[in-house]
Amino acid sequence: MSVGPIQPTYSGGLDSGNTMDFPARAVFSGVSHTGKTPQIVLDDTQRLPWRRSTVSILNTTISLKRFRSRYCTGRYDLGTFEAKPCPTGQRLDSDSPSQCEACRRASGFNPAFYNVLSSELSESQQAYNAEPHNVYLAGFGAGLIKVGISSTRRMVKRWKEQGALAVCVVGCFPNAYEARHAEARISARLGIGETVSSAAKAAALANLVDFDSCLETLESSACAARDFMGAATPVTVTRLLESYCGEGVDLHVLKGMINIGTSSPLVFGGRVIAAIGDLLIADYRGGRICCSAARFESHFVEAAHTVPDINVPAHQLTLL
Ligand SMILES: [Zn+2]
Predict the structure, then answer these.
(1) What three-state secondary structure class fits 184?
(2) 317 falls in which pLDDT band (50, 70, 90)?
(3) Which residues of 206-228 are buried (b: 16+ CB within 10 A; e: fewer)?
(4) 24 to each of 20, 46, 134, 303, how far by Cα in Å?
């Protein structure tokens, strides 16, 4: 999900000597990259209206246990980019989307806006689509690149939500429709996809990532896209890696990390060393494990600053 500026914001954690307790009865509403370091977003469900907490998790020890019951993850204001908890605390069925109908309507965002009439979009999205948009290429690991568009007002946030390691803007347009048109042309002409799955991102990071070669591949693809679009301005690369894991983390430590996102019951934890997009990565008993936060989203969770017991195959950890 998209998470906007949220109050109150707590920072610190067990290992920084500034621990903020997690809400006792919480719904997991996502990962936020609006602060200096990654945070998880938890809605305290003890009383209405729900109180939202964002808790910094980098270099802290956490335990996250997922329960079956699901609740609405709240709403998002396209004008202010502000996210809020669900005002009514709606319970969800096991197979429904992560927003209740009222919050979906209040958010009013259709990602496939170009397939419907403008009049069918919410007023807030019509205004949003009329803003200047950029077309960008985003790199996620060895050879893994996508093309995308974003409002220029929220593009860095959008890149971080997706977990891009680095990004190049390849075109600037007066509105979302012209940017979407360019995106489709670049995708078709250069054979660059418009989406990259969470599993593919995790797999790319678990292979040995040579960040310099990622940057080179991204830059050469961006130059090709710019040439194709007939743009004259030089390509510049924006590095985002440090915003996920702080300074000095070597991507080589992610080599061979185990994705435990399909285990059941789902428990994740350890000392968090990075949150790349929604991919949570932790040191766990001498090895590295990862899990998409989307696996927790909308679920009732038990969160604590302890090391949980996780069913990671022992032979996999000893291979690391
Ligand atoms: Zn709701």
Answers:
(1) helix
(2) low
(3) beebebeebbebbbebbebbbee
(4) 12, 8, 41, 8
Average pLDDT value for the chain: 90
Ligand 1 center to 59 CA (angstroms): 32
What does the block give as tokens for 224? Answer: 């090709």
Report the alpha-carbon distance of residue 135 to residue 151 in Å, rounded.
9
Considering only CA atoms, which of 11, 13, 28, 9 is closest in space to residue 62?
A: 13
pLDDT value, residue 19: 54
What's 209's DSSP letter?
P
pTM above 0.70, yes or no: yes
In degrees and rounded to multiples of 5, residue 104 shows phi and psi of -60, -45
Burial (CB count within 10 angstroms: exposed 0-12, middle 13-18, buried 19+), residue 318: exposed
Phi first, then psi, for residue 115 (nearest 5°) are: -95, -5
98 Cα: distance to centroid of ligand 1 (angstroms): 9
* CB-proximal residues (5 Å) to ion ligand 1: 72, 86, 90, 100, 103
Residue 181, both tokens: 């048109």
C-alpha 194 to ligand 1 mean position (Å)? 29
Q: What is the pLDDT of residues 93-118, one digit of tens each?
A: 999 999 999 999 999 999 999 999 99
